[in-house]
Amino acid sequence: MRRNLATFYTVITIIVLVTAAGVAVVRVASARDRNIAEATTVFASLVEHVEQTLEHDPREDAVFSDGVQTIVRSESSVLVFLVYVLDVGVEYVWARDGSFLPPSFERIDSIPTIAYSEVTQLRLTETVAFGRNALVVDGVFKILSDVDIYPIFRDLLIILVAFALVTVIVWIATAAGRASGTEHDFDISRRSTRDTRPRRGAPAGTSFAEPAAPPSPAPEPQKFSKSPKNSQEREVRPFVSPNSGVGFEEHLVRRLTLELERTAQMDQDLTLALARFPDAHRGSAIHSSCASTLVERFGFEDMIYEYGDDAFAVIIPGAELGPSVAQMDEMRTGIVTRPPVDSMPRPIIGLTSRNGRLLDGERMITEARSALRRAAAEHAGVVGFNPDPTKYRKFVTK
């Protein structure tokens, strides 16, 4: 569920970011188009003023100069305004910033080069008849300024900050709910007292749904003796059996319970398999060869334990029941001859999984043992015990 929520929120985040960026781009383009239309209108008024004052000398007549000054000073978008005659020179020039202009205007053989940005600025040129020559009216206009961009990015920043705050609130609420749910489920999972057996009639080699089996009856109180004064007098039991190379059975329940708690905190699944090799009695060469096969297959000795006289328990963290059943069936059909053992028996395997529940190691072993009994009774080879979490919760809360 945690992975599904993360995937869903990732998709929502991508949609929000793409939508916000798209709206910002559209607003920038709209402001630019609006300013282009206004610049075109201002330039048209300048050209009209030039045409109306052609009989006056632009360099000497105040009528021409005053009219241009009135227009350009009232319109902040005007950056450069030129009136020139090709092959002659400049008749009139006005610039808001001298960095736009070329170094010399003594003689103009072609359209002069003006430094401007094609993204934020626009250059317009118009030719007006003037006797035998032609006046060229040239202007550069600002079409995208900080005044246009600031509100757009301000609104974009507000949206992103609001979405980030919502994300933090959702994360905190989810974490709090998961912590309280984990504590509640872990408390009620220890109150189960009913035995659960697999149902008849399910196909061999497949998983079957059944309410989870309760833990075994509570053991009788143990009598504790006084610890020896010298710690060296205590008998230290090794973790791994020297005969099989895997863990002793007495460590299985504790290790399985710890792995169940760890995977529950990480919201992962866990599968337990009980693999019984007929006639591979503990201490025999066949028993050791079977243990070596499991270690070679699953890689970690501390996740494999002896179980009974001729069986092994395999803990598979992070694995769901379905893939584990397929993996065990593949291992079972791929058993080959191993020296010095003449033949290795094909195992009978029963599996169960955590499947979103919070339970202890003893209960999980009971479920796997129930599936193993069914596999042996029906000659199915591999049987998976698939508990229903909903039925399980209803059962333990009765």
Can you walk me through this structure?
This protein is of the alpha+beta class and 398 residues long. The protein has two domains: 2-147; 194-217 and 237-396, Reverse transcriptase/Diguanylate cyclase domain (Alpha-Beta Plaits, 2-Layer Sandwich), CATH 3.30.70.270. The protein is 44% helix and 17% strand. The protein has eight helices and ten strands. It has helices at 2-52, 62-74, 146-188, 252-265, 285-298, 321-333, 361-378, 389-396; strands spanning 78-85, 89-95, 121-130, 133-142, 207-210, 270-276, 304-307, 311-317, 348-353, 382-387. The strands form two sheets. A six-stranded mixed beta sheet has the order 5-10-9-6-8-7, sandwiched between helices. A four-stranded antiparallel beta sheet has the order 2-1-4-3, covered by helices on one side. Helix 1 runs antiparallel to helix 2 (62-74) and helix 1 runs antiparallel to helix 3 (146-188). The longest helix is centred in the N-terminal third of the chain and has 51 residues, at 2-52. It is rod-shaped.
Number of domains: 2
CATH topology of the largest domain: Alpha-Beta Plaits
What's the helix count?
8
CATH-wise, what's the superfamily of the largest domain? Reverse transcriptase/Diguanylate cyclase domain
Structural class by sheet pairing and helices:
alpha+beta
Question: pLDDT under 50 segments (min length 5)?
Answer: 188-207, 222-234, 337-341
The order of strands across the largest sheet is 5-10-9-6-8-7
In sequence order, what are the helices and strands, one letter per element? HHEEEEHEHEHEEHEHEH
> How widely separated are the two ends?
25 Å
Largest sheet: 6 strands, mixed
CATH architecture of the largest domain: 2-Layer Sandwich
